[in-house]
Design brief:
The protein is of the alpha/beta class. It has helices spanning 14-18, 20-28, 64-75, 97-103, 121-126, 143-154, 165-168, 195-198, 202-220, 222-226, 232-242, and strands at residues 2-7, 32-37, 50-51, 61-62, 84-94, 108-113, 118-119, 130-133, 187-188, 191-192. Strands 2-1-6-5-8 form a five-stranded parallel beta sheet. Strands 3-4-7 form a three-stranded mixed beta sheet. The chain has a two-stranded antiparallel sheet with strand order 9-10. Strand 5, helix 4 and strand 6 form a beta-alpha-beta unit. Helix 9 (202-220) crosses helix 11 (232-242). It binds adenine. Adenine is lined by residues 88-90, 133-135, 137-139, 142, 145.
């Protein structure tokens, strides 16, 4: 996969793209990530990227020319016939694990980050394929949302996570929150790891984890259960939770 990130602040990405799993994924060649400063594509000697809004009102608006030119520049050697051009904006569709899984199938993603201001509407209408929001809150720019999207997509690419199972078992991939995890010591300040996890009985452990995952989801994110089919055992467990029986 190739990812191009269009931003006025490429330096914001340096640490994030070099560290940990993203850094390793790039080293291994699982993904190629470039940052492109679209100020380099401004047309005038002042390198202007924004201007006052037509019709008046406060704030500045990102001009179309530098962003179109920067996107066209990266499209010129795109590895894909239909790259996705993603605009980071609080007005976009909410980014989800399902969206990340869809984007992870693509060969080329282009992310456009605004900063402070809005975008000229013609960028929305005639350039981008998707508008993405990372949640109902407003950040100073699209850079942090772009980092979240890139991180989430890259970890799904083949060969990026050492343990192939670890992405498939994630919260939201299974549709349930994850069950509680423990590691050594078995007793810490008098708080003990549940006996069943020390029992070595794999089938019982599996059942305990499934029930815990369902309980946690029922307690914290009941909205996730509404969109998901439940089997008979899960329905029975939920009736028990409703009666106050904790797993
Ligand atoms: N830009 C500013 N806030 C944002 C958000 N919540 N999601 C995506 N882009 C943004």
């Amino acid at each position: 996969m190739r990812i191009d990130i269009l931003t006025l602040f490429p330096e914001m990405f340096e640490g994030v793209l070099a560290a940990s799993i993203l850094g390793k994924a790039r080293e291994k060649g699982a993904v190629v990530i470039n940052t492109v400063n679209f100020r380099d594509f401004a047309l005038d000697k002042h390198r202007t990227v924004d201007d006052v809004p037509y019709g008046g009102g406060g704030g500045m608006v990102l001009k179309p020319e530098p962003i179109f030119a920067a996107v066209e520049h990266v499209l010129a050697d795109s590895p894909s016939r239909a790259p996705r051009i993603l605009m980071m904006t609080p007005q976009g569709e909410t980014f989800t694990q399902a969206k990340a899984e869809q984007l992870a199938q693509e060969k080329h993603l282009i992310l456009i980050c605004g900063h402070y201001e809005g975008f000229d509407e013609r960028i929305r209408e005639h350039l981008v394929t998707d508008e993405l929001s990372i949640g109902d809150y407003v950040l100073t720019g699209g850079e942090i949302p772009a980092m979240a999207v890139v991180d989430c997509v890259v970890r799904l690419l083949p060969g990026v996570l050492g343990n192939e199972r670890s992405a498939a078992a994630d919260s939201f991939s299974t549709g349930l929150l994850e069950y509680p995890q423990y590691t050594r010591p078995a007793s810490f300040r008098g708080w003990d790891v549940p006996d069943i996890l020390l029992s070595g009985h794999h089938a019982n452990i599996e059942e305990w984890r499934n029930r815990q995952a369902l309980y946690r989801t029922w307690l914290r994110r009941p909205d996730l259960l509404e969109r998901r089919p439940l089997d008979e055992k899960q329905k029975r467990w939920i009736r028990e939770f409703e009666q106050g029986i904790k797993p």
